[in-house]
Amino acid sequence: MDTRERMVDVTARLLARQGYHATGLAQVLAEAGAPRGSLYFHFPEGKEQMAAEAVRRLGGQLGAALQAKMDAKPDVRSGLQSVARMFARQLEASEFTPALSAACADVFERWTAVLAERLRKERPRIAAPERLARTVLSLIEGALLLARVRRSVEPLRDAEVAIESLLAG
Predict the structure, then answer these.
(1) 108-125, pLDDT tens digit by residue?
(2) What CA–CA distance (Å, rounded) separates 110 from 143?
(3) What distance lies between CA 107 and its chain's CA centroid?
(4) Cα Rg for the chain, rounded, in angstroms?
């Protein structure tokens, strides 16, 4: 793995664990084993550019996990509930340390597209599958926020119940 890739990987890990503001350039360089001059060589726009690439990488990884969860289930309801459980397990494993709070819009758009496509295939009569997909993602994201603040996965369990209601209606 080259220096640039190591820097993006380290940044993604640190952002997920400690957030943007707590992640320093010196820490990234030290953990990536990269010389200081390599930062602006690989990322001329600095920390923000490096963080944006790390967010895209994290989003891609989570998007792939979302796709795998959806594909592994026989229907959208159980797939979405599985996603909520996945996030609950990850949150518990992280001991509720802050995750990256400013996710890129394109990551959420990709996630929305995954869910909307599944809804179109499984429930072709739904008038606005993208809207329902965004609603479900908002529900899960809101539950994640509440779970972090409360240090409990109960909001994610509530999201599972709400997903059932949304898809039943």
Answers:
(1) 888 999 999 999 999 999
(2) 20
(3) 8
(4) 18
Contacts of 108 (CB under 8 A, 6+ apart): 134, 137
Separation of alpha carbons 64 and 151, rounded Å: 26
Residues 28 and 10 sit within 8 Å (Cβ to Cβ):
yes
Q: Which whole-number Å values give the CA distances from 143 to 73, 75, 94, 125, 152, in the listed order?
A: 22, 22, 16, 28, 10
At 98, the pLDDT band (50, 70, 90 cuts) reads low
Instruction: Answer whether 12's CB lies under 8 Å from 57's CB.
Output: yes
CB atoms within 10 A of CB 91: 20
CA distance 110 to 161: 24
DSSP 169: -
> Which tokens go with 72?
């592994």
What's the pTM value of the predicted model, to 2 decimals? 0.66
Amino acid of residue 41: F
The tokens describing 91, both together, are 């949150």
